Amino acid sequence: MDHQDIIETIKDRGYFIIENLLPDETIQAAREILDPIFTSQRTGRNQFEGFKTQRIYSLPKLGPALWPFFSNPDVLKIIRPLLWDDCLITAALAANVLPGEQPQAFHVDDGFYPIPRPRPAFSVGAIWAMDDFTAENGATELIPYSHKWAEEETPEGVLTLDDAFTRHEPGQADGWHSPANAEIVKAEMPRGSVLIFLGNLWHRAGGNRSNGSRLGLFPQYCASWARTQENFYLSIPQETVATMPEEMQTLLGYNILPPFMGHAGGFHPQKVLPKV
Ligand SMILES: O=C(O)CCC(=O)C(=O)O
């Protein structure tokens, strides 16, 4: 399938998986940075983050081994046309779902933009499989076509994001699970594959009933006129940004959306970055 067909498929059913897009050396190089951090990383603070899920945010700060997951040309060729032809990274996280984790709350990723659905997606997510994603170990679960649902079509049985964020004790979210009458697809895919899905598609991390962890690396992109979830200007040192390729700098907001969105005191942001 060429990228135009993939874009049309995503517009229609909300998601697409490209299998084996990155070679194992790229996965391994990133894991060499991430795995030692996970040995002591805390688990989530609420149902949404996952009581048995470890997360690391602002991943590009960890250096060049992480950047290929954010600036992959095959992925950006699909995502930019879905976002008014220009995008920023809005969130840059890794989610390591540990054995025994319960399914996450179903949610959409761009629900905090206060424009009622149905509407176009204001963000698009990409989840890279850093392990094989299986039905047992917590493969992301998606509800195909749900990006077309209106606000009032939120399916019965879905825990809202507000609910998920305010449940601070494991077990408090028991009793909810699958929405009634909705087909759920598990994004099973081999390590090195990427799932691309619209920010207004209902989805969640699956529960992990296996004995191993499930690592997903999760760049989310938003239209470049929208506010980003993570504040990378504060979370990634400018000295690190200054060493990045121009594409990464652009995706982190160090560029202009014409005619002048993103200027820094009247200057192009790249002129203001420290010289390294
Ligand atoms: O880890 C996953 O499979 C999905 C996680 C997710 O949807 C989220 O945290 O917003």
Supply the CATH superfamily name of the largest domain: q2cbj1_9rhob like domain
The biggest sheet amounts to: 6 strands, antiparallel
Share of helical residues: 10-25%
Give the strand order of the largest sheet, numbering strands 1, 2, ... along the chain: 1-7-4-9-3-2
Low-confidence stretches: 172-177
The bound ligands are: 2-oxoglutaric acid
Class by SSE composition: alpha+beta
- In sequence order, what are the helices and strands, one letter per element? HEHEHEEEHEEEEHHHH
- Strand tally, please? 9
Rg calculated over all Cα atoms:
18 Å
What is the CATH class name of the largest domain?
Mainly Beta
CATH topology of the largest domain: Jelly Rolls
Strand content: 15-25%
Shape label: globular
Proper CATH architecture of the largest domain:
Sandwich
| Overall mean pLDDT | 92
Annotation field: number of helices: 8
Structural domain count: 2
Distance between the termini: 42 Å
What does this protein structure show overall?
The chain has 276 residues and is of the alpha+beta class. It folds into 2 domains: 229 residues, Jelly Rolls; 40 residues, no CATH class. Helices cover 22% and strands 17% of the residues. The chain has 8 helices and 9 strands. A 6-stranded antiparallel sheet has the order 1-7-4-9-3-2. α1 crosses α3. The longest helix is centred in the first third of the chain and has 15 residues. It is globular, with a radius of gyration of 18 Å. About 2% of the residues have low confidence. The structure holds 2-oxoglutaric acid.
